[in-house]
Amino acid sequence: MSNSERRILVAEDNAALASVVRFNLERAGFQVTVAYNGRLAWEAVQEDDFDLIVTDQQMPEMTGCEFCEKLRTLDAYRDKPVIMLTAKGMELELPRLKAELGIAATFLKPFSPKEIVTAVEDHLEAVSEPVSP
Question: Is 133 among the domain residues?
Answer without folding.
Answer: no
